[in-house]
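Contributing new records

If you add data, match the layout below exactly. Sequence lines come first and carry their own label; structure lines follow with theirs. Keep one chain per record. Anything else will be rejected by the validation script.
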Amino acid sequence: SYTMRFGNHAELPEEELFRLAELLPSKFRIFSTGPTQQLEKFIKLNQNYSGRLFLEIIYDPFVDKANDIKQMMLSMRENDINGYPELVLTQKLLSAFSPQRFVDECIAPLSGINAQMQLGRYAPSKTRNFNQSQVVDIDDEVNWLAEVSKIVMQQNYKISIIPLGEYAITLLDEYGESKALQADGTINESLLPEPEPLDLKGIKDKTRDILLTSLYIDQNMDVYVWSESMGQHVLDINYGFGSLGNLKNTSIQEMVSGKHNKIEKMLVEIIRNLVSHPKCAPCRYKSFCASHAVPLFRKSHNDNGNHCYGYIPAIREFQKNLDVLDFMVDNFRSLEF
């Protein structure tokens, strides 16, 4: 996929949108936009280029109404454009919205239209002047998300909350947790299968494969690794990594080959953190967190409280409603993305 996440692309002139779309042929193109009913430019874009067009809708609950987002998504689908709202979890948001209010006002109106919603952790960045004031303490965020997840599951809302819903499915299917699932939806941890022996080479190889299929190409044709994490962060200068290279003068194959390429540097840092951090070292989910580059997020905020970047309490709430998880699986497949 060709992901372009910088700025509100709805504000760009039509000719600039077309220029960006021409930079790299791709099966999927993802643009970002604020909520709008002015879709004409994107409709023309979709009609003139092959492949699927996705719009990431930047959703600010202090400004935008969920019903307006809903109407925008329905209008997009009428024109064969898919997409989803993305909402960043800031200190301001969690202070103003209790979990119940958040579900009632931001999630419930989107239930019933097979919607996805991407929740993202706020991360200080160069464009935000590395502002720390909106960073949410990881314990507060995990507890708030666990309560949100609990309400969504209890109300049986048909909406795909990503990535937490994806994480819940992955742990059930790929980490054997379905064997420990009880009738009430809880996980009996005493019934979990024995964790696989620590295989650092295997973890490194699996993580490398995932990183190589999660590349982000910006509007200048610079290539970065894109972490499928809580917020889908680009691993760029904000995390101490430069671009892998530029497609104007280097192929992706050249960027990722060789013993000293930047992906290998990331892998070394991820593995070192996993085996040395007091929370990661004894944990059964090392390979899961490695594949999402979770250890790298400690550069901006350490998870040294009761919880960690694995978000397990929130994931556990999702696992209590298999009907909703089955809906999510079908929804993911229908997107073909």
